[in-house]
Amino acid sequence: KQQQQQQRGPLSSNKNGVRIKAQTDDGVDEPVTLADEAANRIFVNGYAQRFPQLTLFSEERNPPPLPEILSGDLSLPLPFQEIKQDTVFRQRDLLVTIDPLDATKEFTEDLVEYVTTQQCIVAGGTPVAGILHQPFVERSATVGLPHSGQLLGGVQHQQPKGDAASTVTLSRSHTGEGAAMVEAYLPGRTSLPAGGAGYKALLVAGGSAEAYLHVTKSKIWDACAADAVIHAIGGEFTQLNGDPVKYDPTDPVLRHGFLGASSPKSHEWHLGRLKEHPVALAGHAGEMPAEATLTTGSAS
């Protein structure tokens, strides 16, 4: 079971304590900061203390313990009391993926509007809830519930209009061939580079972009909450080969890119043009990212 340590307090966007834990295949540094580690301590300890039978899969390494984080009543505040089809799951049947600080590179550059925390609850390899929070933006977390088709909390669902209806958002730090693919294969579409998978999913949910395209390697904690949020608004989210993303912590690296769109019709249009140019990135089944930690919950 996973545990943690010390300081809590709000996140701070200073650049101290940055180290590089790995490099992507296209040579982009993957930094980790004190803020990543502090957030990870809180998330992992909080889940492990309150829901000890969950399986947790975090981007960051196993944290040291913290004193009790969650105590007393955990009643949901409005608007989260409005959840429909509130399915009950056994803890031991659920996986929670955790990206404690998405867009770390942008965080080190003080581009904090891109930063999110990402949590995703998975049952049978499929997201049942995605939680995206922008810690430097004054609004509550955004929760996507695919089964009930609800988007609750911070970002309000809007259909893309005007220029947004022809905008495809993609990574500013892991661009790969994304912008070139938009220009070559998606006529009439414009690229919008942005930081962080969570932020880009919120752009689609909030109507600032029609689609989210990713064409380099990623991990399940990058995609899972985005998948849940986009499905919650009635959109579609798949790999670029058309297959659903399977959220398996024993095979966590996604090697076929992914596409999320604001509606099934939009997704079909984009995928139909991109599928002719498949993305298959180097790697192997079971490839494990640097410092990622899988923690299996207690049996009782």
Automatic annotation (TrEMBL):
EC number from the UniProt entry: 3.1.3.25
A GO biological process held by the record: phosphatidylinositol phosphate biosynthetic process
Main location: membrane
Keywords: Hydrolase, Magnesium, Membrane, Metal-binding, Transmembrane, Transmembrane helix
Domain of life: Eukaryota
Subcellular location: Membrane
Pfam families the UniProt entry points to: Inositol_P (PF00459)
InterPro entries: CysQ/Inositol_MonoPase (IPR050725), Inositol_monophosphatase-like (IPR000760), Inositol_monophosphatase_CS (IPR020550)
Membrane topology summary: Single-pass membrane protein
Cofactor section: Mg(2+)
Gene Ontology molecular functions: 3'-nucleotidase activity; inositol monophosphate phosphatase activity; metal ion binding
Reactions it catalyzes: a myo-inositol phosphate + H2O = myo-inositol + phosphate
Pathway(s) this gene product operates in, as recorded in its UniProt entry: Polyol metabolism; myo-inositol biosynthesis; myo-inositol from D-glucose 6-phosphate: step 2/2
Region of interest (Disordered), residue spans: 1-29
Alphabetical list of SUPFAM superfamilies matching this protein: Carbohydrate phosphatase
Descriptive protein name: inositol-phosphate phosphatase
